[in-house]
Recover the amino acids of this structure.
């Protein structure tokens, strides 16, 4: 179990707790500590259902929860199925957003859906939870489950569950913000935690409305991170540029440039640096036979000379000299 959540005031929950079956064992010994901690920290706000015996005894994977006051993000990566045994009779007023990363989650007859909901990789499902519903997952599962207070989003979701693609611009910016929060939550001040929580809610609204205010300063870091995430996945594509990424995120190039203005490098400089880093990793990998000219072509430098000059400027060594450095 990682560090316990910190409290900054009455009802103010900020922190993260994690269980990793690879490091804490599998089955009950890995599952129950997480559930106990959730019930201790968040159970009064968001009671959990009872999970099946097979879930508890056979759990293999990682569960991580980030809590920001009355909002939580749970991320599950597992190689064993998860299912409920009993859902209880608690009255709820919360909004849940499921984002599929791997495998699928099946929700049995969620409120207002009019039938079961299936959240597969690359999709999302958001609904208003009034009463708990059963669910089960595929054996290989990856999902983020957001829990928001009902007051914040009920007017947008109640009676009309939302479904969509996790690759949509609004979804990618929400996910980028969440990844940043996961990384820094343990060091957040009370004010920063409150701001992060509010940004999370506003980005969730943007997901529902398929629009967010790209002039809002709170969203600038999330926009920059989303652009970085997209660039990292497309470093070997010839058409990668600020213009193509801005178009993908449905913002102007100027808006994207503004998002990077507060950082130490422009977006174009970020793309160049990441391409050089990827090239360096491949050139120095054991058994690599990639030539300098092939590296220049793969990462879209004009020619070998251009690539060598850029590489030397970044690493203070030519690719050949860099490859001979001791590991």
């Amino acid at each position: 179990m990682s560090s316990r959540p910190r409290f900054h005031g009455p009802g103010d929950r900020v922190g993260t707790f994690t269980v990793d079956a690879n490091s804490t064992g599998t089955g009950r010994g890995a599952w129950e500590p997480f559930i106990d901690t959730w019930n201790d920290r968040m159970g009064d706000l968001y009671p959990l259902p009872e999970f099946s015996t097979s879930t508890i005894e056979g759990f293999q994977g990682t569960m991580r929860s980030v809590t920001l006051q009355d909002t939580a993000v749970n991320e599950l990566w597992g190689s064993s199925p998860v299912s409920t045994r009993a859902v209880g009779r608690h009255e709820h007023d919360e909004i849940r957003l499921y984002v599929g990363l791997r495998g699928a989650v099946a929700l049995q007859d969620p409120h207002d859906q009019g039938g079961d909901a299936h959240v597969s990789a690359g999709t999302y499902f958001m609904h208003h939870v009034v009463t708990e519903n059963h669910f089960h997952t595929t054996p290989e599962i990856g999902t983020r489950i957001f829990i928001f207070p009902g007051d914040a989003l009920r007017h947008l979701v109640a009676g009309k569950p939302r479904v969509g693609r996790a690759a949509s611009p609004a979804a990618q910016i929400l996910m980028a913000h969440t990844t940043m929060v996961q990384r820094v939550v343990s060091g957040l001040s009370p004010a920063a935690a409150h701001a992060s929580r509010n940004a999370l809610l506003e980005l969730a609204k943007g997901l529902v409305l398929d629009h967010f205010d790209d002039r809002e300063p709170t969203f600038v870091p999330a926009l920059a991170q989303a652009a970085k995430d997209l660039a990292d996945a497309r470093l070997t594509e010839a058409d990668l540029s600020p213009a193509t990424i801005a178009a993908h995120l449905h913002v102007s190039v100027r808006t994207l440039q503004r998002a990077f203005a507060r950082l130490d490098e422009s977006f174009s400089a970020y793309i160049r640096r990441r391409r050089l880093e990827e090239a360096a990793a491949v050139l120095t990998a054991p058994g690599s036979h990639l030539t300098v000219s092939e590296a220049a072509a793969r990462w879209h430098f004009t020619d070998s000379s251009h690539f060598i000059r850029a590489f030397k400027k970044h690493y203070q060594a030519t690719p050949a000299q860099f490859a001979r450095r001791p590991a």
Observations:
- Residues 190-209 form the longest helix (20 residues).
- The chain has a mean pLDDT of 87.
